[in-house]
Amino acid sequence: MFKPSQFAPLLLLASASVSGCMAQLEIGEASSDANADRDGDGESDSSPFDIEAGQPSSDDAGPEFAFDPLRASLTLLSSESLSLEGVPDGPLVSHCDSLPMNMAVEVACYFFERGEFGSFEGRRGAEVEYVKFPAVGVERAAIVLVTGRTESYVKYAPLVYELTALNPERGYTVYVLEHRGQGFSGGRLGGDPITDAGNWQKGHVGNFWWYLDDMRTFMEDVVASADHERTYMLAHSMGGAIASRYLQRFNSDPLVDAVVLSSPMNEIRLDLGQTVLLNLLRPALLFIGREYAVGQGPWTYGSFESVTSSEVRWAYNRRWQLDFPEIRVGGTTFQWTVESYDAANASVLLGGRMRVPVLLFQAGRDQVVGDGGQNKLCSRAADCRLVRFDDAEHELMNEADSIRTPYLEQTLEFFETH
Q1: What does DSSP assign to residue 171?
Q2: CATH 3.40.50.1820 at 4-34+41-416, yes or no
Q3: Quick check: 35 pLDDT over 50?
């Protein structure tokens, strides 16, 4: 199976190209636009909250990491800059030595050339992958990006590029954590992504708690061991559910100072009939837990409309999966569905256990997760503010610039003020 380190020889040849691009960035020539908690008692604290429109925050700055208005300008990649028009076939990083370099290629080359790739042994011996990007210049804080279901860390290449290369004065070290059973991590059901693709691509987990154990190992052994001054977490979708349960289970010492939940999976989108059947047939579903759930199947190319209004950003993300079949993930198994349903419900019931400051972003047109669980969780958490983008689809960080820009501005302002 492909591993990022296999590109090392190629990237050494291309490093001069990327370094040249970085030198341009430093003088300002970059593009700029844009299962249940088994050890808990279920107690929760309730606090009122307001659902805000997606407008800039006016929270007071904290004393240690105060937000400097002079640094408020954020340089972002526009959707158009990631267009694949004119980019030849083959892995994006195979074109690193081609000049002039398309921005879509430059972002990919930066990710593989600058990233420090690593892994650790998770529960049941699964090899869990991550990548680290040290701060460009003086470090001020670390940001941990927690991926959603089906996602590899390569999907976050544009965001990593923005947080480090395009905005070096902010001093962010960035980590991206994959999950078992997806991306380049271990824990798959199949043995080979080509000859056993049907099993390889199943979205499966034997126990949702394994995700939490993996995250704890990562936070303790990788992130906390680096002794960052401040550590923040940005978690998307299923990653948001994992982060929610992690913060509840390890609330006495979560090893993180503030968290942004982006369209978190605090509610599985099921209709009443599906919910009744899931609970009535639970033993039978778990018996055949490794089979695809009803209506689920292997990976398909799909379409962008169900997750974002930006076809360009969606196509860029899809290109990675075309380049590397081993990172493809299809539909979910019965086991994953039952485990995730229970975890999402538990994340809401135990919302009061979340003690760190939370900013929760909600997508008004979300077709993937329900918003009811998000509302309830935020109302029960000790310190949670909810911001809703009415016109957004599920993937806020891959949305159109008019949504994505204020979303990221508010995310970083929240981090800077905590």
Answers
A1: -
A2: yes
A3: no
